[in-house]
Amino acid sequence: MKLCETVPKHRNFKIFFDNYFTHLDLQLRLLKKGIHTIGTIRRNRLKNAPLKAMAKELKRAGQGAFHVCTTAENNLCIVRWHDVVDLSSTYACSQPVCKVKRWNKKEKTLVDVSCPAIVKEYNKYMGGVDLARMLRALYRIDHRTILFSQLHHQCKKIFEGRSSNSILVHANETVVALKECFKDRPDERKWNPKPLIYYFNETQEICAAEIYKQKNLTSWEVMTIDKDVSNFQVCLLKCILNDECIAINYFLTKECYLIKPAKENYIFVVKDNSIFAEVLYCESGTLVDFPIK
Could you give all domains of the chain from N- to C-terminal order, each with its CATH number? Predict the structure, then answer.
């Protein structure tokens, strides 16, 4: 409540939470002060709200299915949307429902799925924090490792400690044991800008791509060439959907080269008026996970 003390009361101000802060009691207390709220919420804070279990009814119903609970006074709405995410709000609910495009893995095509108004509202204004992955777990680390957070691009070194020592690992972090270390293309990467982060509705993934400035690159070769590809991001998606592809070369003429690894002595020349980018990683996520900047 202290963080909201400077927010004007009864002036139609709205506060957006991630699930670290969202609590039904807090939302109702703020509503009494005329401050509306919306946020993703942890399931252990739902106070036995009769939402359908994801593993049962919603999963059988498929992508876009959702279930709604409201209080008797209709001043608090909770929506479970099969992406899967739980949201609660004191001003937004499920209606109106819009349509969004999602990738259907079985049919291997884009399909229309229902998107409740509360999800659209939240995605419109919230970004830059870890919204759906605040569950934590304790791991004991007994050897030299690194702790890497893909979402925040932070890397921490961890050294061997006593058996009683432990560290806190967030769900968006990865612990990797160091077996052998070597530099990967240091000369070719030294002028590269920071990786670009993209969210793909089609695969429901957040992906990072690194653009290369150097023109002569080792160990790459062309797999396929697609023409009339509308933009760089569409070309990148084609690569992500191909198991062998790990890089692209996109041209202003709308040509899209899908690139795969080659032998060390193979030199790939990046032509003028084109962009070469390597896919660094992709991880499952929804738009509410995407760090908008």
Answer: 2-125 (no CATH), 136-177 (no CATH), 189-286 (3.50.4.10)
Cα separation values, 284 from 207, 240, 292, Å:
9, 13, 16
What pLDDT, on a 0 to 100 scale, did the predictor assign at position 182?
Answer: 63
Among 231, 216, 204, 225, residue whose Cα is nearest residue 269: 216
**What is the reported pTM?**
0.43
Amino acid at 165: N
Q: Closest Cα to residue 257, out of 293, 290, 220?
A: 220
Q: For 13-64, what is each residue's pLDDT tens digit? A: 888 887 778 888 888 888 888 889 998 888 778 777 777 555 567 777 777 7
10 Å CB burial of residue 117 (0-12, 13-18, 19+) is: middle
Which residue blocks in 163-280 are alpha helix, DSSP H? 186-189, 232-240
3-state secondary structure of 274: strand
> How much is the pLDDT for 141?
38
- Residues in contact with 90: Cβ distance below 8 Å, sequence separation at least 6, in sequence order: 27, 28, 30, 31, 36, 37, 38, 75, 76, 77
CB atoms within 10 A of CB 15: 18
Of 293 and 238, the structure prediction assigns the larger pLDDT to: 238
Q: 240: which 2 tokens?
A: 């992500």
pLDDT, tens only, 113-139: 888 888 888 877 765 443 333 333 333
Residues whose CB falls within 8 Å of the CB of residue 150, separated by 6 or more in sequence, listed in order:
172, 173, 174, 206, 208, 281, 283
d(CA 99, CA 104): 14
What backbone phi and psi angles, to 5 degrees, belong to 177?
-80, 135
